[in-house]
Specification:
Radius of gyration: 20 Å
Distance between the termini: 42 Å
Helix content: 25-40%
Number of helices: 7
Strand order of the largest sheet: 3-4-5
Largest sheet: 3 strands, mixed
């Protein structure tokens, strides 16, 4: 269920965020380098009544490297608030999760939730895996079922990520949240929060 919801919402994000135009399939010219090719760039006039965003259609975009390096097409930036919305929306649909809040920064996601599940590790694992399924793979995810952490992450909504002492305050909040169950390891190379040995070394060496 989570995978289907995630796929549907992410598809909406991609189609809506990239400004897709109505239309049908077009033939791909192997030698074309003038523009990106999208399935939605179709034969003119064929589908004038088709809605701007059709969630039943697949998303497809093809670029040549030169198009990106020449900045003919801008690489889209992550919409952190939209990611936070998707994670929170999916989390509250999980069993025994009554409330959730999500903070997304440049490489971390902090999710606080309220659960009626007596198995706290199970809920932590479910919420964390939901976030991991939505976020880019390099993100680290921290979860907590402690109610006081709702306010802790809400305080960051007034700050910019380049604000003074942002990283130090964030690190302190993460350490506090880690006292709550974090679920199982994400993989053999990553701990429960998605941290690898190289990630830890890099953070220690960051000024």
């Amino acid at each position: 269920m989570i995978k289907r919801l995630t796929a549907s919402i992410l598809l909406c994000m991609l189609l809506g965020g990239c400004g897709f135009q109505s239309g049908m399939n077009r033939q791909i010219d192997e030698n074309s380098s003038s523009k990106a090719i999208r399935l939605s760039d179709g034969h003119e006039g064929n589908n004038s009544n088709m809605p701007e965003t059709d969630t039943n259609r697949a998303g497809y975009v093809r670029y040549q490297k030169k198009q990106i390096t020449d900045q003919k097409e801008k690489t889209p930036a992550l919409n952190r608030e939209h990611l936070a919305h998707v994670i929170t929306s999916l989390s509250v649909q999980l069993p025994n999760i009554q409330e959730a809040a999500t903070l997304v920064t440049d490489e971390d996601a902090l999710i606080v939730y309220r659960t009626g599940n007596k198995n706290r590790d199970e809920s932590a694992d479910q919420v964390k895996k939901t976030a991991v399924s939505v976020l880019p793979r390099y993100y680290h995810v921290y979860v907590s079922d402690h109610p006081e952490h709702f306010q802790s992450i809400a305080n960051f909504s007034r700050l910019q990520t380049n604000s003074r002492d942002f990283d130090q305050i964030l690190a302190k909040t993460i350490q506090q949240m880690k006292h709550a169950p974090q679920g199982g390891d994400i993989s053999r190379q990553e701990d429960a929060n998605g941290m690898t040995n190289s990630d830890r070394t890099m953070r220690r060496n960051t000024p």
